């Protein structure tokens, strides 16, 4: 390979990487303003990875305060996106991350917090299972690192179970500019 073609190939790779990086960032303007922590976009959603531990209900309240909800994972491509981001966050070394699934209304009957249709699942080994069903403890969904971020169930509001969490927001419509020629 000649040095000119080597530079051309290197330049094309650099351009592709820059386009991918800034293409991702260019959609962040469509997310709610003032979001703290790490924010990514995927599809038509904004995802806020909140680096503080809370009980499930507190995490949901945190998300709803800014107009969002705990992340709901409707398909494999979104699960793959979430998994890749979690694996890339070096400072997220804990075992669990809350997401927006629960069986609060009926033990063993899982649903999304928003009421969206429940069709996709990614349960880990021996999941879902109820914790202390005789005591009517509600279970909530947690992504488990030890199972490659597959889903697990833990009590929503007991002292031992507080985790980091991911909020999900709808994107605002894209802005467009119009130019006129004279």
Question: Can you tell me about this structure?
Answer:
The protein has 182 residues and is an alpha+beta fold. Helix content is 25%, strand content 25%. The chain has helices at 3-25, 56-65, 76-88, and strands at 38-42, 45-54, 69-70, 96-102, 111-112, 139-144, 150-155, 163-170. Strands 1, 2, 3, 4, 5, 6, 7 and 8 form an 8-stranded mixed β-sheet that branches.
Brief sketch in words of this structure:
The protein is of the alpha+beta class and 182 residues long. It has helices at residues 3-25, 56-65, 76-88; strands spanning 38-42, 45-54, 69-70, 96-102, 111-112, 139-144, 150-155, 163-170. It starts with a helix and ends in a 12-residue tail after the last strand.
Write the layout of secondary structure elements.
Elements: H1 3-25, E1 38-42, E2 45-54, H2 56-65, E3 69-70, H3 76-88, E4 96-102, E5 111-112, E6 139-144, E7 150-155, E8 163-170
Parallel strand pairs: 4-8
Antiparallel strand pairs: 1-2, 2-8, 3-8, 4-5, 4-6, 6-7
């Amino acid at each position: 390979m000649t040095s000119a073609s080597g530079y051309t190939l290197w330049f094309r790779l650099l351009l592709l990487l820059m386009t991918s990086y800034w293409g991702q960032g260019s959609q962040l303007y469509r997310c709610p303003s003032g979001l703290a922590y790490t924010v990514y976009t995927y599809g038509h959603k904004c995802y806020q990875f909140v680096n503080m531990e809370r009980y499930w209900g507190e995490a949901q309240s945190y998300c709803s305060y800014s107009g969002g909800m705990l992340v709901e994972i409707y398909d494999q491509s979104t699960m793959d996106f979430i998994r890749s981001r979690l694996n890339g966050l070096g400072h997220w070394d804990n075992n669990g991350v809350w997401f927006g699934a629960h069986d609060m209304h009926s033990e063993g009957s899982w649903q999304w917090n928003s009421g969206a249709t429940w069709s996709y699942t990614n349960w880990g080994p021996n999941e879902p299972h109820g914790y202390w069903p005789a005591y009517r403890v509600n279970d909530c969904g947690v992504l488990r690192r030890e199972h490659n971020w597959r889903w697990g169930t833990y009590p929503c509001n007991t002292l031992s179970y507080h985790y980091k969490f991911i909020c999900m927001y709808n994107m605002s419509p894209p802005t467009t500019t119009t130019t006129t020629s004279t």
